[in-house]
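[Discussion] Sanity-checking designs against the backbone

I'm trying to build intuition for which residues belong where. Below is a structure token string of 590 positions. I'd appreciate it if someone posts a full sequence so I can compare it with mine line by line.
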């Protein structure tokens, strides 16, 4: 009897039948109507609802219901459809239209935070201290905090409306241009996303360098577009930051993610000050590859190959056992995702590159992959499942607290990725263990040191555009190489064309998002070590996974005994990488 194959394409029918489904417009009109009714009732000149406890509680309860549609289902459907085929101009047009309508809703709702923020200190304290508002305390405190960075209602409407042409349409246009390109390789033409995945699995330096050069050349064809886009969206951010009184370019992101700025600054400093750890690893890597110098395409090169293929169907079965062993719910979640068509697996022309997980309150969670049957693809599946499990467990927090901080999102994903990798590691031969240990360190370096180097690159780029007014594509590429060289170290020789990797680096469009990878990886190491020492600690981990955004990231972690504010916390995580390098050196000397 033939084994049943897993579904590998998204079933967006879980949301709507097609882009022409009349329910899309009906749902959008319903959402707009509900928000208009809320605005009509409470957006009065005197904002009297803030002054009366019962009226305020009524408004907050209604506001929480509206938050269930904070990212409307019609808009999510069109985003997902676009990510499956960015070449479809009909989908693109509908996406832009829905985005504009959503931005208008957000602009109209800005009055609520502003009205609450205007409360004097005594009224704020009275609200926070009233048991009636116990459920809303954290949310109200955030609103009070956000008020310091908000403008007038009219100005907020303008900023919300302009975000579409000043940011979203630029980013979408560049992404569309990249996804339309094909990279020449061995007589074929392959999607850009697939080319990125294939660079690291080439077995010899000549092929890696050749594919990297072909990839660079393809990206350079889009560089003029990316140059204009980057300058436009960074300048737009500068304007917004100045209006909102954010000083440094990264401040708005740290504020939005509810992290303690001192913790983030400490993380960036500790990792940057310890780039020598990455240099040491890459020196060893060059030796293992029998190379005197490494090129940019060599940074993820393998020192050997794990013999078996990590086909998607096999990976799913393996991960069901690994994660199901932690809690049966994880197996059930995975079975649901496969059966319902919530995972889109393989690369296709026009498809969004990389991988991600996307979910919303009381709606299906979708995972996008570009699976290529290697070990990295296996751990990527585990990584995205970590996001998905975090999303499912956070549903209990309700609409206003379901959305966890991005820094904790990366903590959950890297934790499950590490658990999956360790399960595979135990089944490998001694030779393969050396290969996988190398790959584990390589991934740690990329997740921590490379992402902080990218954070530094973004900082340099934003500061230069803010001071000079405009940067050419060559200048942006040079800044990219300068910061990549800083973490890669002296064993690397970078070609000027390598700098054009900025063209496709989608994370730099999510302004300073990348620090969360390093944050998450180092926190997940601490969680995994605690779990290994005491299996009952998994209950604490599930407490964190179920907390959503009900507290700040630092407070959620502190509640389970993880204090990231301690000066040595992040440094201790880096020491673990050094110990792994020690072990790799020892194993490869035998």
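Best answer:
Here's mine. Compare freely.
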């Amino acid at each position: 009897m033939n084994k049943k194959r897993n579904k590998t394409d998204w079933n967006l029918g879980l949301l709507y039948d097609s882009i022409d489904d009349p329910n899309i417009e009906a749902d959008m009109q319903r959402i707009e109507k509900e928000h208009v009714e809320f605005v009509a009732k409470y957006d009065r000149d005197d904002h009297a609802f803030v002054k009366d406890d019962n009226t305020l509680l009524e408004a907050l309860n209604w506001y929480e219901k509206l938050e269930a549609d904070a990212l409307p289902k019609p808009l999510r459907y069109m985003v997902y459809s676009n990510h499956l085929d960015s070449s479809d101009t009909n989908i693109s047009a509908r996406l832009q239209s829905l985005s504009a309508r959503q931005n208008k809703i957000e602009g109209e709702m800005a009055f609520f935070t502003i009205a609450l923020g205007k409360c004097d200190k005594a009224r704020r304290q009275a609200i926070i201290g009233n048991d009636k508002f116990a459920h809303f305390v954290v949310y109200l405190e955030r609103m009070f905090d956000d008020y310091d960075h908000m403008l007038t209602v009219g100005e907020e409407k303008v900023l919300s409306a302009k975000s579409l042409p000043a940011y979203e349409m630029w980013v979408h246009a560049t992404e569309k241009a990249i996804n339309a390109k094909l990279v020449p390789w061995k007589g074929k033409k392959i999607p850009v996303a697939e080319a990125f995945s294939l660079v690291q699995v080439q077995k010899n330096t000549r092929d890696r360098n050749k594919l990297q050069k072909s990839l660079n050349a393809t990206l350079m064809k889009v560089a003029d577009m990316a140059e204009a886009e980057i300058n436009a969206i960074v300048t737009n951010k500068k304007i917004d930051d100045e209006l909102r009184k954010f000083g440094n370019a990264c401040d708005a992101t740290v504020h939005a993610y509810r992290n303690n700025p001192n913790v983030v600054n400490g993380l960036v400093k500790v990792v940057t000050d310890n780039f020598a750890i990455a240099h040491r690893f890459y020196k060893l890597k060059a030796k293992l590859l029998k190379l005197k110098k490494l090129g940019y395409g060599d940074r993820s090169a393998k020192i050997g190959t794990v013999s078996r293929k990590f086909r998607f169907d096999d990976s799913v079965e393996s991960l069901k056992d690994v994660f199901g062993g932690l809690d049966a719910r994880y197996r059930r979640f995975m079975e649901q995702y496969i059966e319902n068509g919530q995972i889109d697996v393989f690369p296709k022309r026009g498809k969004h590159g990389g991988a991600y997980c996307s979910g919303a309150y009381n709606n299906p969670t979708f995972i996008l992959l570009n699976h290529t049957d290697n070990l990295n693809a296996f751990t990527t599946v585990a990584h995205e499942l970590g996001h998905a499990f975090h999303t499912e467990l956070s549903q209990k927090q309700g609409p206003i607290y379901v959305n966890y901080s991005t820094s904790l999102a990366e903590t959950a994903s890297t934790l499950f990725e590490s658990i999956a990798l360790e399960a595979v590691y135990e089944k490998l031969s001694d030779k393969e263990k050396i290969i996988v240990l190398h790959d584990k360190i390589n991934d740690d370096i990329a997740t921590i040191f490379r992402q902080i180097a990218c954070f530094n690159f973004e900082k340099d780029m934003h500061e230069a555009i803010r001071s000079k007014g405009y940067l050419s594509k060559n200048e942006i590429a040079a800044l990219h190489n300068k910061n990549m060289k800083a973490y890669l170290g002296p064993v690397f020789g970078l070609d000027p064309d390598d700098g054009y990797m900025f063209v496709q680096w989608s994370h730099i469009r999510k302004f300073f998002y990348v620090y969360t990878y390093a944050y998450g990886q180092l926190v997940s190491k601490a969680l995994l070590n605690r779990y290994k020492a005491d299996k009952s600690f998994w209950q604490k981990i599930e407490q964190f996974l179920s907390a959503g955004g009900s507290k700040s990231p630092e407070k959620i972690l502190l509640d389970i005994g993880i204090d990231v504010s301690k000066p040595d916390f992040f440094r201790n995580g880096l020491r673990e990488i050094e110990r792994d390098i020690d072990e790799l050196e020892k194993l490869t000397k035998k």
